[in-house]
């Protein structure tokens, strides 16, 4: 590595964007060799998928790395919880304080389960996301955290039908001729795949987006289909109805590789006539018929197969798991799985057989340890879950005060004087304001890591480019210190991060679907440090072209025996949202509007909100509302409104627009309370109710009312 910059001597270092996004971009950091300071950061042109360009947020990444508000030293709280007043302490004192508290709690009658680790995907690196931290908390016997806040509804939904995630080689999607962004704001949340969709469009593909909101992606698509929130499962059943009614199904694929064809056929033909689906989804019969025809007959009409980019937006509803289970049945009906780049794509993460058992050591978990669903942090902190109260909370890679549902109750829980809270982060987040001990974390430029991706098929290592700022430490290092302070077996913690990464590439994990068990074979850490390495998968990889579904039957399970045995409906069916005007008219009489709260393009969930340029580009907090709903409430364009329900309220500026249908409102998240004038973000109104499958979050399943704020 090496290179020249004007005047100063510089060198370049290859890294990986660590943020929670399917793109997992390759980055090149230019460092001033004399000062050791990073002076430039760009996309890695040699990365076959991310091809040298970065999103708006990471283009500005040095603003975040060298932000004047970076946490540089451990702190202890001196003010009230939430007030944000802290005093510098040493690492020694911080580690000793934490270990003493953990030891005391573990020895108490309540035991180590009264300690709760809380983390999500602030970084997606295999080591920083989940390695020594898991080993530490497993060894300690702390409560287990079920990490459900984002992806589990669809993951389990997919598993029921396919036995794994819906996956393809995303690069092969240039071959698709009919591309459906289903609950996916692809042009914002997966920009390199959007580029591939564009390439496909140049080759004749039609792009359709199914979304209650005219998202940037919907606006740029050939066709925006505005479903009512949470009704995607019904739409998919209606499409199946039309396919079977017209006889457009691929009988050969169905009979060779699927179970339950006749049961499903019977179900959709009798129970999901198009008129009923129109009533549920708010679409017209013509629109549904046309969508079904173009989707199912894409090969004749557009010259090639169809691909559904099924994403997270549609999962955040009570029936989100079943919706995904249902949607991923569709490519079996059309036979699109036969073709590379066609079928459906949720996530490629299961294509990487990293040795997660070795990384996280689940064998250390004491028998009978309870599991807490992270979506229910509010309940956990208020002592409402089985297994006793939470006495200590250790937060890293996450900002629950901003991202969790039922925010007011999360905050009152965090404010408990008897709760001992540690927050390890790069910044003084809304959550850190409630900590007893704050620990400074390194950024991706300052530590080593190894990455898979959930949006492409390359393994990459992140080489550290600069030294840690101040006294910041990587997650792994903090758990080494804590492991030592607790007197845990040194061998659990003593390998270096590089050694752990190298070994994690070595042995295939137990759950690996057949066909990808060898995907990492022969890929060395050295190769991954030099740049992106493609998994050992064939160029025209189409994992289900010949069946080979890793389900119990080995087939695509249109009918699920496992579901039947669990006492549930074995066939796809429509599960309405928890807060649905059609099925909950009494609730809707008070709170008639269905509110969606997807992230703002300039933020990544709550990350980047404190970067001034990005916050400015996000503008104000807005609420998009249809002219009919605005008029009914006397709300003018540009006026401040209060959005509320029984859980809470927040303020936003009304944008009266036809970007939503009547009955739907949209506000873009996820602001930090401290950057708002009312100390609240949209999660004051969201609920901790979970999805049908996977215990997932239901952020978009949320009835609210809106009122003009008097001036
Ligand atoms: N209303 C509503 N709520 C939502 C969503 C929504 O669409 N609407 N989206 C949901 C989704 S999809 C998700 S995934 C969750 C995301 O929830 P979180 O995973 O909490 O995501 P972030 O808000 O990005 O916060 C991550 C934090 O990790 C920190 N961090 C980054 N790297 C490191 C590191 O190496 N070490 C340590 N210790 N800390 C680090 C960052 O500084 C940041 O404060 O939010 C959910 N919440
Ligand atoms: N810029 C940016 N990129 C990101 C993120 C970010 O915060 N900012 N977050 C990252 C993370 S953690 C995740 S999980 C992914 C999420 O990426 P996406 O899956 O694209 O998720 P969202 O943007 O939350 O929602 C996508 C769309 O679903 C729509 N939607 C809501 N409810 C429904 C419904 O019932 N049916 C249908 N059909 N559509 C619905 C929303 O209006 C939204 O436009 O993006 C990742 N990429
Ligand atoms: Mo997410």
UniProtKB/TrEMBL annotation:
GO-annotated molecular function: iron-sulfur cluster binding; metal ion binding; molybdopterin cofactor binding; oxidoreductase activity
Gene3D superfamilies hit by this protein: 2.40.40.20, 3.40.50.740, ADC-like domains, Dimethylsulfoxide Reductase, domain 2, Formate dehydrogenase/DMSO reductase
Necessary cofactors: Mo-bis(molybdopterin guanine dinucleotide)
Cross-referenced InterPro entries: Asp_de-COase-like_dom_sf, MoPterin_dinucl-bd_dom, Mopterin_OxRdtase, Mopterin_OxRdtase_4Fe-4S_dom, Mopterin_OxRdtase_prok_CS, Prok_Mopterin_Oxidored, YoaE_C
The keyword Transmembrane helix appears for this protein: no
The keyword Iron is annotated on this UniProt entry: yes
Start and end residues of each 4Fe-4S Mo/W bis-MGD-type domain: 10-69
Family: Belongs to the prokaryotic molybdopterin-containing oxidoreductase family.
Protein name stated in the entry: Oxidoreductase, molybdopterin-binding
Organism: Frigoriglobus tundricola
């Amino acid at each position: 590595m090496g290179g020249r910059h004007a005047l100063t001597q510089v060198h370049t270092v290859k890294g990986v964007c660590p943020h929670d996004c399917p793109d997992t971009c390759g980055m090149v950091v230019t460092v001033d060799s004399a000062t050791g300071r990073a002076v430039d950061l760009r996309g890695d042109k040699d990365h076959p998928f991310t091809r040298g360009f970065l999103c708006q947020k990471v283009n500005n990444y040095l603003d975040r790395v060298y932000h004047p508000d970076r946490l540089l030293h451990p702190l202890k709280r001196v003010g009230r919880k939430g007030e944000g007043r802290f005093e510098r302490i040493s690492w020694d004192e911080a580690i000793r304080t934490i270990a003493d508290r953990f030891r005391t709690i573990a020895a108490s009658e309540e035991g180590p389960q009264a300690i709760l680790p809380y983390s999500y995907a602030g970084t997606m690196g295999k080591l920083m996301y989940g390695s020594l931290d898991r080993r530490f908390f497993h060894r300690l016997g702390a409560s287990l955290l079920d990490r459900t806040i984002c992806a589990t509804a669809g993951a389990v939904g997919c598993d029921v039908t396919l036995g794994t995630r819906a996956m393809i080689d995303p690069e092969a999607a240039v071959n698709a001729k009919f591309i459906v962004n289903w609950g996916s704001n692809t042009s914002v949340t997966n920009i390199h795949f959007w580029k591939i969709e564009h390439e496909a469009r140049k080759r004749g593909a039609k792009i359709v987006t199914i979304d209650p909101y005219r998202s940037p992606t919907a606006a740029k698509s050939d066709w925006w289909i505005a479903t009512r929130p949470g009704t995607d499962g019904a739409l998919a059943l209606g499409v199946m109805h039309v396919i079977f009614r017209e006889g457009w199904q691929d009988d050969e694929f169905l009979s060779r590789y699927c179970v339950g064809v006749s049961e499903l056929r019977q179900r959709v033909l009798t129970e999901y006539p198009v008129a009923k689906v129109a009533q549920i989804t708010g679409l017209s019969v013509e629109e549904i018929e046309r969508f079904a025809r173009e989707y199912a007959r894409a090969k004749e009409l557009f010259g090639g197969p169809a691909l559904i980019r099924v994403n997270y937006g549609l999962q955040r509803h009570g029936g989100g798991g079943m919706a995904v289970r249902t949607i991923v049945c569709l490519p079996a009906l059309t036979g699109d799985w036969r073709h590379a780049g066609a079928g459906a794509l949720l996530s490629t993460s299961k294509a990487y057989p990293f040795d997660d058992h070795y990384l996280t050591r689940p064998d250390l978990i004491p028998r009978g340890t309870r599991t807490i669903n992270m979506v229910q942090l509010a309940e956990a902190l208020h002592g409402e879950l089985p297994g006793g109260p939470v006495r200590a909370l250790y937060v890293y890679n996450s900002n629950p005060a901003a991202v969790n549902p039922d925010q007011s109750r999360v905050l009152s829980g965090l404010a408990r004087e008897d709760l001992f809270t540690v927050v390890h982060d790069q910044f003084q987040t809304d959550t850190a304001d409630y900590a007893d001990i704050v620990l400074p974390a390194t950024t991706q430029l300052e530590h080593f890591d190894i990455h898979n991706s959930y949006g492409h098929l390359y393994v990459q290592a992140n080489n550290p480019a600069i030294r840690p700022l101040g006294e910041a430490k990587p997650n792994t290092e903090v758990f080494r210190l804590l492991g030592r302070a607790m007197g845990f077996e040194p061998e659990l913690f003593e390998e270096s991060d590089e050694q752990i990464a190298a070994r994690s590439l070595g042995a295939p994990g137990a759950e690996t679907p057949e066909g990808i068990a060898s995907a990492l074979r022969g890929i060395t850490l050295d190769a991954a440090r030099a740049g992106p390495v493609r998994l050992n998968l064939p160029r025209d990889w189409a994992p289900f072209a010949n069946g080979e579904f890793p389900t119990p039957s080995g087939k695509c399970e249109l009918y699920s025996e496992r579901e039947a045995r669990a006492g549930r409906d074995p066939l796809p069916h429509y599960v309405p949202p928890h807060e649905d005007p059609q099925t909950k008219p009494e609730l809707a009489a008070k709170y008639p509007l269905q509110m969606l709260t997807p992230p703002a393009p300039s933020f990544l969930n709550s990350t980047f909100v404190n970067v001034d340029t990005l916050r400015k580009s996000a503008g104000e907090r807005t609420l998009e509302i249809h002219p009919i709903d605005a008029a009914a409430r006397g709300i003018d364009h540009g006026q401040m409104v209060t959005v509320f329900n029984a859980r809470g309220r927040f303020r936003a500026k009304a944008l009266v627009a036809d970007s939503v249908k009547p009955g739907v409102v949209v506000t873009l998240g996820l602001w930090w309370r401290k950057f708002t004038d009312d100390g609240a973000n949209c999660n004051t109104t969201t609920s901790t109710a979970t999805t049908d499958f996977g215990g997932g979050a239901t952020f978009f399943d949320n009835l609210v009312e809106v009122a003009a704020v008097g001036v």
